[in-house]
Amino acid sequence: MQNNLFTTIRSLKFIEGCKATQVYALNSCPSSGDRPSGVGEKILNHLHDHRRSKPTSHFHPSVTAEILLPYGLPSAELIEPQIDPYLKYVDFVETLADLYRRFRACPPLQKSHFYLEQCSVFRALGDPKLTRKSLRSARQHALDVHSKVVLSAWIRYERREDELIGITSLDCCGSNMECPKATLIAGYDPDSIYDHCCCNRMPKNVEASAEDEECSTSEEDWDMSFCVGREEIRCNRNCIASLSRPFRTMLYGSFIESRSETINFTLNGISAAAMKAAELYSRTRRLDTFDPTVLLELLSMANRFCCEDMKSSCDTYLASLVYDLETAVLLIEYGLEEHAYLLVAACLQVFLRELPSSLHNPNVIRLLCHSESRERLAAVGHASFALYSFLSQTAMEEDMKSNISVMLLERLGECATASWEKQLACHQLGCVMFERKEYSDAQDWFEASAEAGHIYSLVGVARAMYKRGHKYKAYKLMNSLISDYTPVGWMYQERSLYASGQEKSMDLRTASNLDPTLLYPYKYRAVSMFEENNIEGAINEMDKIIGFKVTSDCLELRAWLYIASEDYGNALRDVRALLTLDHNYMMFHGKMHGDHLVELLRLNVQEWSQADCWMQLYDRWSCVDDIGSLAVVHQMLANDPGKSLLRFRQSLLLLRLNCQKAAMRSLRLARNCSISENERLVYEGWILYDTGHHEEALAKAEESITVQRSFEAFFLKAYALADSSLDPASSLPVIHILEEALRCPSDGLRKGQALNNLGSIYVDCHKLDLAADCYTSALNIKHTRAHQGLARVYHLKNQRKAAYDEMTKLIEKARNNASAYEKRSEYCDREEAKSDLNMATQLDPLRTYPYRYRAAVLMDDHKEEEAIAELSKAIAFKPDFQLLHLRAAFHDSLGGIASTIRDCEAALCLDPNHAETLALYEKANELAKQPQATLALLSLS
């Protein structure tokens, strides 16, 4: 019972959108003098009355559709799908299974490279959590300093900490995973990676000065000297000889110097200061009193005279002096010249942790992008596929068509050795060249990737052929691809580009049936309907895809259609939501900035006051209209761009829409706009939590509470505690924290979320009456999702009809109600459940429960093949862990050992520690060995 609590807590944020919202609309914090005062329903009713009592004005559009559409109407020729710039396999299940098999056989010291490959494969699945998890595992198993530097910077980049005001590139989050000093320590120690780092601890016993050390040698110990110009540096012969074999040979071998008390070093290019430093180092082994210029000369001297210990000490100490981009640019040249491994690593670390801004520095470009530079880095041990994979990904995100992207991808190809590395480097170069409209080069790179084994690159080959005027060749290539392999949705989508009429429509229908998440079929059908003057049908077609997969290009097309139909209010809503996803978006295929279109549309739409906006936000949030809520928040931020609370609200909506990259940006902006320390700490905690750093997030929440008790700090603490508590069996601490949150000032939206969460925990603890009270209180302040919790309470009380009716209320109120249909199916008979789940799949084909339920029903009816086909249909476009596990169990029940093993391996690649799947996998492997043992006995007899 209590184990479910922590599953519930972890899932609430994404299913229910229940992070602490931070919009102070109805109640105010004591420190917020500019926020509306007053409490609860009186203010709510007053605002409703105010809005109802406002006289309605007859509003006349002042901007015509012709002005709003200077670049014409949407056209089918301009919505061509993009070629995905990552590894994308024909059979993802077999690819995942192969990864897991190789993982089991992978030696510990090679695991880091394996996890990097896994990360590249996971990117095609579109789940940032999986890719971050692989990156963290790669860092955990990194062996050398170079890999640690690259992977730590990459993990940090995923949080885009460069956008956080006041945080420098070498700031540490507190653990060895990303600590800039821990990365410069060589060695394999995967168990310590999550430990707290000691970069801020002062070294002990450093009080002794160089002068004290120097006094340990008396004049009687000086038995020789070096002359540099007119200066004489007195030395101890044995100490100098200990620096290296060349010095020992010179001072004790059969040379004139071995019999001389004074040695002239003037012509060796070493200054007196450097020689003094070498003498002092020979006795004390310390460098902390020297000027950096002396250390650089000492490093050069160490190289010339093979003084390995002195070189290592200089290298280490100089690396510790690298603290910003300017210093790194200066010192890396010395490091490369003198082959100083750690110094180059420290400089490279700054470059990587300053991404993407460092790629705008010409010195950094010169040091990283050119072929000769890669060779110089390779000579020092700092050129790798991981390095250039990280750099090229960053460059492509900044500007895919840039020369920098091309150069870095060329370097990536030069570092590629494994087959998957060659596939990725060549494919991405093909994508960049295609975007640059260099179609001949693009075709060559795509062909190289396909030859290395990446079948999806044939899409690029066909597209490049098509652009070069060879449409029939492109069609034939896609036709042969469909014939040679098990067809998947993107194959038919691609072939449709080279077909026309009924054949094109059939291919697009097949593409949508095989993979309903593909965008192009919906967009093409919408444009085709629009061209046939079926505007309502066109908009409905876009509604289908936007209902479960929100992307900038789909919102743009729907807004375009609304403008053409002169529905400017909905058009403005979509453009505002679009700009929330991508604030720099260029409309009409890159010809008009979205902000400019907003200004034009505003002239045709009745403006809301800030009070109206709050009520609109309240209404849209209550009816689960996330797109509408985003648009309202965007308008509010236009009036008050520094409102961190609104930025946070924005991040919640984006997370609910599965737009995680945009959500993280909003969260970073919320942090930057914070006007108090406790707010800043909370937002930093959510950033850490959302990127998997739960213990660090908990520490931020507790620190915030010590500054000021606040709703959002307690809410963060509840989430973080559930994930990092040493005693996950107890729910009492989380309940207590949520109760503390509810005692703090909050608006109705936030309070509704907190009550809903608390109700869920009470249900898990079987305190049903308390749970019902929480849900009822949440519904009283229009937190619509509480219907689902209350239905669960009724169900547990054996009041199934009441549960069904409660979910029906949610379906009627909610704009996005696929989850409501799914949940209602639990409270009705089989036929009604099947109908509800079919509706859920129609509204959101990405939800996996309906497929699992239908498959289970088919298995119960002894329709085994149909049950497996139901799961396979979803797995083809969404290789989900639960789907794979269930299909493996079905195969096992039918005696399909090979299929069971394959599906278990694919599932374990996604979650290697799942106990039930591991047990099923071991069982299947044991069964697989039995026939071999029987054959062996027969052969012996």
Task: Give the gist of this structure.
This protein is mainly α and 941 residues long. The chain is built from 50 helices and 4 strands.
Itemize the secondary structure elements and their pairings.
Elements: H1 3-16, H2 40-53, H3 65-68, H4 92-104, H5 111-122, H6 128-140, H7 145-158, H8 210-214, E1 224-228, E2 231-235, H9 237-241, H10 245-252, E3 262-264, H11 272-284, H12 292-304, H13 308-320, H14 325-337, H15 341-353, H16 362-368, H17 371-379, H18 385-398, H19 403-415, H20 419-435, H21 439-451, H22 457-467, H23 471-484, H24 489-496, H25 501-514, H26 519-531, H27 535-546, H28 552-564, H29 568-581, H30 587-590, E4 592-593, H31 594-602, H32 610-622, H33 626-639, H34 644-656, H35 660-672, H36 677-690, H37 694-707, H38 711-724, H39 732-743, H40 748-764, H41 768-780, H42 786-796, H43 800-813, H44 818-824, H45 830-843, H46 849-860, H47 864-875, H48 881-893, H49 897-910, H50 915-940
Parallel strand pairs: 1-3
Antiparallel strand pairs: 1-2
The total count of helices amounts to: 50
Let me know the largest β-sheet: 3 strands, mixed
The strand count comes to 4
- Give me the side-by-side strand order of the main sheet: 2-1-3
